[in-house]
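ok so heres the complex, two chains, lmk if somethin looks off
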Amino acid sequence: MSDEREKLEIEAAKLVTALENEDFEGFRSMFLEQHPYDQAKIFVKLEQEERTKLYHYLSPEEMAALFENIEDEEYNYEMYLSEMDPRFASQMLEHMYADDAVDVLNELNKDQVASYLTIMDDEAAQEIRELLHYEEFTAGSIMTTEFIAIIANQTVKSAMHILKHEAPDAETIYYLYVIDEDKHLVGVISLRDLIVSDDDLMIGEIMSERVFSVSVGEDQEDVARKMRDYNFLALPVVDFQNHLLGIITVDDIVDVIDEEASDDYSKLAAVSDVDSIDRGPLSAAKKRLPWLVILLFLGMLTANLIGQFEETLDKVAILAVFIPLIAGMAGNTGTQALAVAVRRIAMGDLEEGGNLKIIAREAGTGIINGAVCGFLVIGVVYFWKHDFFLGLLVGISILATLTVATIAGAFVPLVMHRLKVDPAVASGPFITTINDIISILIYFGMATLFMQYLI
Amino acid sequence: MSDEREKLEIEAAKLVTALENEDFEGFRSMFLEQHPYDQAKIFVKLEQEERTKLYHYLSPEEMAALFENIEDEEYNYEMYLSEMDPRFASQMLEHMYADDAVDVLNELNKDQVASYLTIMDDEAAQEIRELLHYEEFTAGSIMTTEFIAIIANQTVKSAMHILKHEAPDAETIYYLYVIDEDKHLVGVISLRDLIVSDDDLMIGEIMSERVFSVSVGEDQEDVARKMRDYNFLALPVVDFQNHLLGIITVDDIVDVIDEEASDDYSKLAAVSDVDSIDRGPLSAAKKRLPWLVILLFLGMLTANLIGQFEETLDKVAILAVFIPLIAGMAGNTGTQALAVAVRRIAMGDLEEGGNLKIIAREAGTGIINGAVCGFLVIGVVYFWKHDFFLGLLVGISILATLTVATIAGAFVPLVMHRLKVDPAVASGPFITTINDIISILIYFGMATLFMQYLI
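and the predicted structre for the whole thing:
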């Protein structure tokens, strides 16, 4: 990797020099040889003055290819657009795939969007306006309208002719969607099947009528799952009357899968967004501090709870020794059960047996784990402190705590899922606190009850 | 989702009935209408008797399409293969894409592999043998050899002719790779470009000579990253002399991204594999218990450490109240810093400044977070316990603990990365224990030092 990065940096340095020397030809020949993804990587590192020159050196179409490849984390679309001549900017947006243009426009305020759409070509503006309506995280919000639709009543040869004509503008040409006169989706044919078919065959004869499609309001995670399971390169998007509205291509789905996974991961780690780049300690602190403050106050609750048992603690100070062990084990088992439940929900893998079955299984798991750990603890404490009752107390606490904490870890996300709240939100603070409280109540409750055996 | 699942279950019931009634025609017409992914879903739920019938009802080629779609988690390849007639099984393996066949064979022992390869067509056996050599998790292990390679010195028309001929067997037809007489990779042309080009143009004129490729030993995560960043549908795989060996298609990469993400997630949650399906409490316990036992013994270390301060605790029992708060906050900040570092390493996003810069930034983040949380604690404890010195002790402990824990959270995965150990392994037990120990040493150390202000 580092070799490639080095090479890119050398190229970038050369390009900056070309910009500084106003070497139009030299810059263009070097820059356009780069893949648009690398162009974007270089672009975001330029100074404003250099960027302004670049806008004059590239065509709107070339700029569009670059702009499509700016990564989400680095976006500063508004700033870049404001640096461009408005006409250049809207021509660039016109040349972008509609779904990518919509991503950019979603970062601007309404007035800015309206002004770019006004100076844009009417047809492109209309397409973008329609896409802007769809809610975030739905199929509609990630689909594009640059697909190839054909009618069934024509030959392979004539379909190939249409394909040749439309290929330069379509986001994918590897599936052709077949529609009837009312734009209902009635079939699909892959380019592979088209190519191996005889020129004179009719599309209606060779198309597949069993078309997989997603509905425009469907959650993007569900779309991603379908695409992954069935290995499609694109999926058509339809409304409730089966009108073909757009397509979703596999590259967008790769991004969705990536985002969703790191979203779950971020929440488990209690960081607002693990993947955004930190510019310095302040921006990193801003991302983590809100969680820490919540956790701090929840921790105070736990401290307060222990405070209730101060009398017990005063008499048997050694009890304090095992607090982190018991609370820690409760936190660990809870996190395990939670992570399994969250992933299962995210992957749509909830078994038929329903939630009760899951809870029952988690209870079983908790008892097994609790029993094993409990016995180990009794043994270790006995040999270490030569105090059988203390060992018994800690061991039974571990058994009870692990059982309850495991159930809680699975129960909370399932309930949140039922309540249509993203279960991953529960990961950090909730489970840890609930389990801290449970473990301390069990441990000190038992210690207070059986005090006479401990002193 | 549940509608679709219901539909699939109804279909499955009908198919089982057809199998039971030995309705050959009815079964085939219904079954082959299903997408191979759904066929696989139905297949894995059948009883052995039904499966045996199914092997007789389907051709090796039809069975191959189904077999390619059995999900990793559900695999029981060995059992299925042993139920088939050996000749049928090896014909099926022949019809599978080579990379998928290799996945299946990797689950068998050497003798079994050898016996299937012996009865297989020589050419197919040779291809599979070569792929079996590559190490797991490398580009070689996920590539396939069913690609289309052409020479530069021919017209578009003749390339299209080759394409039509080879399309049915190739895993992707959307990129044609151009090689010289020694099989060196010299160019690439997308089907899109081929289709819009005039028939009489030469491939050498229109191909792109700037081919992105990956080396056969490259890590599959690096390959996935490239494919995601550059939005390729396939990438060619070459050896160190730039000979074209195979291709990797986007569907395999989607699986890699998915696996890697859930692998990191599993390790953060200290579960061996969050995504494998639990059949019952015992299998779930088996996945989690090893981690819990490790954590238990590490927890004992912490308990032992607190035990060293028993004298201090005896005098000031209230100190125990804040143990879970301080240890918990250390654990939380450590997990945050760790999660950020692990993801950054996984995404190849390590900044140029190097590790020192990251550590310095984390130290800054830790101090900011520690200062904010520390001041909050001083205030809360003062109002709650009316004890300024206790508040000061807890507050300063939080400041010191958070700073050190944040640094540790980033430092450990960076060191592991340097030592070529997967940094995600550190997630669970390590960081938590290190931070427990750090926080207790700081808290009780200070309490013991400043004892006179507390009593």
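quick notes: The two ends of chain B are 63 Å apart (CA to CA). thats all i got rn
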